[in-house]
Design a protein that fits this description.
This protein is α/β, with parallel strands linked by helices and about 270 residues long. It has a domain of about 190 residues: Vaccinia Virus protein VP39 (Rossmann fold, 3-Layer(aba) Sandwich). It has eleven helices and eight strands. Strands 1, 2, 3, 4, 5, 6, 7 and 8 form an eight-stranded mixed β-sheet that branches. Strand 1, helix 4 and strand 2 form a beta-alpha-beta unit. Helix 7 runs parallel beside helix 10. It is globular. The chain binds S-adenosylmethionine. S-adenosylmethionine binds next to helix 1, helix 4 and strand 2.
Length: about 270
């Protein structure tokens, strides 16, 4: 690793990474609709080298490598060593532990992608400018990020359930790094333009994420705000059964359906 400025986030994601790695197959299933959007983007034109920022356990990095076949190299980069420890390296897929905001890249990329991995920078303009430096002339980016909390009721239910477990925890800073930090399209466009990216397009992308009902409790226990709250609970199993009821509205027979309201942000290196 070169250096790290987002140390609070690094600590947060090192702790979260253990749960993500444990529940990797469930995460990959739930978030697959967005993996498909990014793999499709990668196939739009020939690629030499692709970077996946905030790659987590690497599902998108590997999916793009599989879609592109033998030629291009795919690099996944993440600040969390526990996430990267869960990322399976294979073929022309490589993973790096680094802070995307300040990492000095030894190579350049003609496509930079991310699925929910670019909302956690303390200085987003510096981070997106650093990624511009890592892009080849004519290179482009494609990021998937969350729209507002109100448009993503599954996420709100999870944070409310977590808050009920830890009533004394300070509320998250709505203006700081976090899942919804790029939800406002106008200010997000400005961030990318101030960073030097051109041709910024921000479009809604809505998908229904699904999983079998029997995976809901393992999902909630290992990921997101409830997993963090459970670490402090004295009887985690009893507590998770209590909060499970809050998710009834998303259960349809033996399937869980979570509507996800996101942005697809695309931009290119100005010529
Ligand atoms: C919500 S997870 C998404 C993981 C993965 N992209 C996926 O879709 O499965 C966000 C990821 O961003 C990473 N992250 C947060 N801040 C970062 C930074 N400054 N540099 C690199 N990665 C970062 C976290 O460690 C975490 O793995």
């Amino acid at each position: 690793m070169t250096s790290e400025v987002n140390s609070e986030q690094a600590e947060w994601w090192n702790a979260a990474g253990e749960g993500w790695a444990k529940a990797q197959a469930i995460v990959d299933l739930v978030l697959r609709p967005f993996e498909e959007v990014l793999a499709q983007k990668a196939l739009e034109r020939p690629r030499d080298r692709v970077l996946d920022v905030g790659c987590g356990t690497g599902a998108v990095t590997r999916a793009i490598a599989d879609a592109l076949g033998d030629g291009p190299e795919c690099v996944g980069l993440d600040i969390s060593r526990t996430m990267i420890a869960g990322a399976e390296q294979r073929g022309k897929v490589r993973f790096v532990v680094a802070d995307a905001q300040v990492h000095t890249f030894d190579e350049t990329f003609d496509l930079i992608v991310s699925r929910f991995g670019v909302m956690f920078f303390d200085d987003p303009v510096a981070a997106f400018r650093n990624l511009l430096r890592a892009a080849t002339p004519g290179g482009e980016l494609c990021f998937i990020t969350w729209r507002t909390a109100e448009e993503n009721p599954f996420m709100t239910t999870a944070s409310q359930a977590a808050a009920s477990l830890l009533p004394d925890a300070p509320p998250p800073d709505p203006n700081g790094p976090g899942p919804f930090s790029l939800a406002d399209a106008d200010s997000t466009r400005m961030l990318f333009e101030q960073s030097g990216w051109g041709g910024v397009v921000i479009e809604p992308v809505d998908r229904i994420c699904t999983m079998p009902e029997k995976l809901l409790v393992p999902y909630l226990s290992n990921l997101g705000p409830i997993a963090r709250a459970l670490k402090l609970a004295e009887e985690p199993e009893r507590v998770i059964n209590d909060v499970r009821g809050a998710f009834d509205e998303f259960v349809h027979g033996d399937e869980v359906r979570m509507p996800a309201a996101c942005w697809q942000i695309t931009a290119s290196v100005p010529l």
